Every structure is written in structure tokens, then in C-alpha cells.
Amino acid sequence: MLKGKTIVLGVSGGIAAYKAAAICSKLKQSGAEVYVIMTESATKFIAPLTFQTLSRHDVIVDTFDEKDASVVSHIDLADRADLFVVAPATANIIAKMAHGLADDMLSTTLLATTAPVLVAPAMNVHMYEHPAVIANMKLLGDRGVLFVEPGTGQLACGYVGKGRLEEPERIVEAIERYFAEKQLLHGKKVLVTAGGTVERIDPVRYLTNDSSGKMGFAIAEAARIMGADVTLVVGKASAYIPPGIRTVRVQSAEDMLDAVMERFGDTDIVIKAAAVADYRPAETATQKIKKKDEAMTIQLVKNKDILQTLGQHKTTQFIVGFAAETENIDEHALDKLQRKNCDLLVANDVSQEGAGFGYDTNIVRIYDGNGLVEALPIMTKQEVARRLLLQVAERIKKGD
Ligand code: PMT
After folding, report:
1. CB-based contact 93:20 (threshold 8 Å)
2. Domains and CATH numbers, the chain
3. Which residues are catalytic?
4. Which of 35, 45, 83, 194 shows the greatest Cβ crowding within 10 Å of its Cβ?
5. What is the pLDDT of residues 335-383, one digit of tens each?
């Protein structure tokens, strides 16, 4: 499965560093070329010679220990990687990655690589739950870094809790899954809408909603990881837009309709995660509206439904709609799927804790023309995105 793949394995200084030897060995057995970079502290737990023997390559610890004069080793390794794995990742290396520090071979190479990065954290349970660590991991997650969450159990420090490096077999499975899914949407043009629309009342006031953009951004990032050519059409969003994705900024529902229709003919898959305003002010004042009467009325007119318009114009495109519901989820979702001519519809019950607007997690039910396909429990929006795209890829493959 990993034949021909180059994996750079970064080992940072925690007791779980010894488990990285098993990861290195299993990756080699799966056919990968493995290059190991260790931090100085990692060498206190396990000798570089172990990794050198298992990987059959020099292990680099010191940025200035250049063995081959024809290359700069941190750039060479950064460029060579098909995937960069950091296992175990301590709180320290996670913080350096999040904030762009480059003060040793591992952090410098991580900063120089454009390869996807997979991080397997391992640390004391209280460190893992520290707000600084959580914020750093979130920052990295928003940038598209993949995580293999630590397991729960007896920790080397004596505590019982979450923080134990996931077993090497599971980490290698995650790596194999990454490469297996990487090509699933290869060659497909995917258009994702995200965020909320802004409907102007006057130059300083507008109507909008609570969409942060997180769900749409996670889908765009997951589609990119699966090899798609992704375009993101974004309204108002508070979350971090994933770098390296073609992005079109819009304001109103009408702008979003234009941006989507302009690209629709040249698109294979459209995923409409944006929260589009159903109504807009009938008129937008060109000057700031002055305070006068005790009450004021703003007349609203209906926006064109973008998803429905796409459904009417679709030829070969695969269309995924979203539905933000608070009651009768199945009924409303299936009605929207049929009315808007979608191939799949993702419903989130936004009245539930952890689902919908603003959260890092979601709880969704996915439907096709025959009814419910998958009911997913609470999970990160990144994982929801991945599970949704697996459904899309499976259906597209059948249709090819
Ligand atoms: O951005 P986050 O904070 O991560 O939150 C994610 C989310 C809750 C916004 C997302 O998961 C979601 O549910 N998006 C759809 C929200 C919505 O507008 O639902 P709706 O049921 O009103 O609309 C149904 C579908 O029609 C949606 O795909 C919507 O994009 C589309 N629509 C709606 C109105 C309109 N004028 N044009 C449309 O295309």
C-alpha cells in the first residue's frame, strides 16, 4: 500500500518515542521509504541508531550536521516527503508548529515542507487538556494538519487519562487510509460554499446569520486532501480559511448565486454548506439611515434559492445540499432533497448542543433519494467532511 511513498517521521521527546520505532518498522514493511528526524530530547529516550537501522537512512538531529554537500538537508527532506508524520508529538513541538518556530531540525523541516502533515500527540492528560495545547491543536487542525488522537489509559507519568500515544498499528492504518483516500476525488472539480451571506440595509448595517464557515472549510480541505481541484465561495465567516484553496469572497445571496452559476458548467461536484439568507431588504440605502421615528419597518423580499437553481440547471453535476433544521429533521430534509433536486442532503439539527452554527463539531444525517444513508454521531467537522466525501466518491465512482 505504501510502496513508492516517502514518509518523513519526526520523533519528539516523550517517553512514547520508543513506540516510534515500531511505526518506522511497520512503514518500512509496508513498502514506504522512511526518513527519521529526531529532536535532541527524543534521543534521551531512544538512540538514533535504532531508527537508522530500521529505516536504512541516516537519522538527523542537528540542522547543521550536513552530511551531503550537494543538498541542504532540511529543505531536501521537506521537499521529498509525500507525508510528514510527527509521532510522538509533544506539547512543545505542537506549539512550535502552531506558531511557526524553527529552532531545531524537526521544527525547521516542518516549517519548510508543503507536504501534508499528520500528528500523533502524546503527553500527560493535564497537558493535553491545557487551553494552550487545545488552542494550538485547533490552529493546526484549521490549517489542515491531520491528527491521530491519543488513546486513554495508564500514562507513564502515573496518571490515567487521555494522552497515551495511539498504538503504532492504528497510526500506520491512519497513514495507509490517508494514501488510499488521497486519490478518491482526483481530477474532480469541487465547488464548496461556506459562511453566511450579508444582506445590506445601509452602508453600516446588514442582516446575516451565525455561520462561522467551519463546516464548509472542513469540506473544502477534505476534498483537497482527496485530490480534488477545489474552489471555495465564501460569504461572511469568522473561521480561518484553509490556505492553498482557490477562494472567491462574496457578500450577498445574489453575489453567491452569480459566483456559483459562473462556475457551475465547469464543476463536477457542488456542496452547499453556506447559510444563505432567504430574504434581503427590498432596498439598500446608499447613506446611513438616520434615527427618526419610534419604530421602523424594513421590507424584505425573497432571495432566489441558489441550491434549487443549481438543481434545475444540473446536467452531470453531483449536488450536495445542507439543511439546518430544528424539528422534523427527516421530513424536512427529504422534502429539501427532492424539491432542490440534490443527489445527497446533509441535515444538522441545529438545536442540539455541538451541532451546526459555530461549533467545531457537528451531528448530521445524510440522505439520498431512497432515504437515510448514514446517521453520524457527534464528531469534528473535519471527520463529518471526510465521511460525507466518502459517500460522494462512492456514488460518483458507481456513476462513472
Ligand atoms: O458555518 P458553520 O458555523 O460551521 O455552520 C455550519 C452550518 C450550520 C451553516 C451548515 O452545517 C448548514 O447547515 N448549512 C446550511 C444552512 C442553511 O441555509 O440551511 P437551509 O435549510 O436554510 O437551506 C437549505 C439549503 O439550501 C442549503 O444548502 C443552503 O445553502 C441552500 N440555500 C438556501 C437558501 C437560498 N436562498 N439559497 C440556497 O442555496
Report:
1. no
2. 6-182 (3.40.50.1950), 189-399 (3.40.50.10300)
3. 157
4. 194
5. 999 999 999 999 999 999 999 999 999 999 999 999 999 999 999 899 9
